[in-house]
Amino acid sequence: MTAADPVADSAAVDRLARLVAVPTVSKADAEQTQWPQFARFRELLAECYPLVHERLEIELVAGHTLAMRWAGEGDGAPAVLMAHQDVVDPGDAASWAHPPFGATLVGEGADRALWGRGAIDDKGSLVGILEAVEHHLSAGFRPSRDVWLVFGHDEETHGTGARAAAALFAERGIRPEFVLDEGGAIVSGFLPGVAAPIAAIGLAEKGIVSIELAVDEPGGHGSTPPPISAIGRIARAIARMDAKPFPPRFTATARAMFEAAGTGATGALGVLYRGAGMTGPILRRALAKAGPEGDAMTRTTRVATVIEGGHAENAIPERSRAVVNVRVLPGETVESAVAFIRAAIDDPVVRITLLAGSEPSPESPASGPGWQQITEAVAEIVPEAIPTPYTQTGATDSRWFTSICDRVYRFTPFDLTGAERAALHAVDERVRLSSWLRGVAVYRALVSRL
C-alpha cells in the first residue's frame, strides 16, 4: 500500500472503518463492559488480517488482551509494538456531528476524514500496525528478531491487560530491546519560530493519581443553613486547590525537546531553544503561558473531574465529594503530589483519600536502539519532521513495561491538527485519511528495520 495505490488505500480505510464501528468501550466497572463487542472486534481482526493470524503465535492475556509473537530470524532482544482495543465512552451521541460508532467518511481530498470514537485513540495505531505487518508478511519479509504486538483491552480504565502482559514477559524472561506505544504525534506550530513539523516522541510519561475529597456534615432543612455546607466546603477546597498550581519545573526531557526543536528555528528563538540548558527558566515561563498543552509539560497538573452532593432542592446534604485527577511530572511522586494538594486545601474537615496512583515513568534515552529505528522511519516518510523528545502528559499501557525495558517510547505517527488533538476523549473524534495513511507508511518503514 502506498499513497499512489488508491485501491489498496481504499481497502485499508475500509478495514479501519469496520473496526472503528465496533463499540469496544471499556468501563471502570469491568462487569459493565460489553465483552461480546471485544470478541467481535477480535473476530473481525482475524478476518481483516488473515496472514497475521495464520503466521503469528497468538494468545489472550487476562481474558481479552492480545499478545502476538512474530518469530524472527535471530535471537536478539525483541521489539514490542503496542496499541489498545478499547475506547472511552463517547457520551451523548446527540452531541456528535456524526454517530460516534458510525465510522462516517466526511470531506474530500486531503481533508477527507473518518469520524468515530477510536479513529485516533487508539484503533488508528492498532490498525496501522497490523496493516504494516500484514504487508510485510505478504512480501515474505521476516524480522531479524522477534516482534511482539501487544493490544490491551482496558487502557482507558485500569490497564490490567497490559500489566498482565508485562508480568507474563517478566515471567518468561523476555526483556524487549525497545517498546513503542501510542503517544506524541507529528504537530506543527507548537513552538513559536519552528516552521517545520515536530515528531514528538515520548521518552517518559506522567504518573496518574485519583484523589477523593469528601465532607460529612449534619443535614437539615434548606431554610436554616450552617455558615458553610458540605457542598460549600468541597467547592472552597477545589477553589483553594485551583488557586495554588504546582510550581513549574524543567525536566531533562523538556530541555532535550527544546534543543532538538531548536535545530529548526532561526534567529534569537533558535539560540534560545538550542541553549535550553542555560535558558531553561525563560523557556519554562514561556511554555507555561503557551496554553494547556505547554503548561502541562512544565508541571504536575490537577483538576476536579467529578463532584457530587445533595438529594433534594430544599435539603442540606449530609455529604459531598469530589474526585481530583492528578498527572505527576517525572521527578516528583504520588506522595509528594497528594501532600501538595493537602497543603493547598488546608482544611482538616475535608477528608483527602488516595483512590489510585501510579508513579511517573523513568525517562528513556533519545539515542540507541528503538530511538534510531523510529526516527529513521519518520525521516523516510516525513523527512520534513524534526524528531523531538517529549514528555507524554497522558498515560499509556507502555508504563507497565518500564520494569522490563529501559527504552520505552510513546509516538503515534499521524500529523494531527490542534482540533484533532482536542477531540481525543471528547466529541467528534476523527482522523484525516491522508494523515492516517502516511502514518501507516511510517509503521511499515519501522517494521522493515526490525
Quick structural summary:
With 450 residues, this protein is an alpha+beta fold. The chain contains 14 helices and 17 strands.
Question: What are the SSEs and their pairings?
Answer:
Layout: H1 6-20, H2 35-48, H3 50-55, E1 57-61, E2 65-70, E3 79-84, E4 104-106, E5 113-115, H4 123-138, E6 147-152, H5 160-171, E7 178-187, E8 198-205, E9 207-216, E10 220-221, H6 230-243, H7 252-261, H8 267-274, H9 276-288, H10 292-296, E11 301-309, E12 315-316, E13 319-328, H11 334-345, E14 351-358, H12 371-381, E15 386-392, E16 408-415, H13 418-422, E17 430-432, H14 433-447
Parallel strand pairs: 3-6, 3-7, 7-16, 8-15
Antiparallel strand pairs: 1-2, 2-6, 4-5, 5-17, 7-8, 9-13, 9-14, 10-12, 11-13
Helix pairs in contact: 1-4, 4-14, 12-14
Characterization of this structure:
The structure is a single chain. By secondary structure, this protein is an alpha+beta fold. The chain contains 14 helices and 17 strands. The strands form four sheets. Strands 1, 2, 3, 6, 7, 8, 15 and 16 form an eight-stranded mixed beta sheet that branches. Helix 1 packs across helix 4 (123-138), helix 4 (123-138) crosses helix 14 and helix 12 packs across helix 14. The longest helix is centred in the N-terminal third of the chain and has 16 residues, at 123-138. The protein is globular and about 80 Å long. The two termini are 19 Å apart.
Descriptive labels:
450 residues; alpha+beta; Aminopeptidase; Alpha-Beta Plaits; 2 domains; 8-stranded mixed beta sheet; 4-stranded antiparallel beta sheet; 14 helices
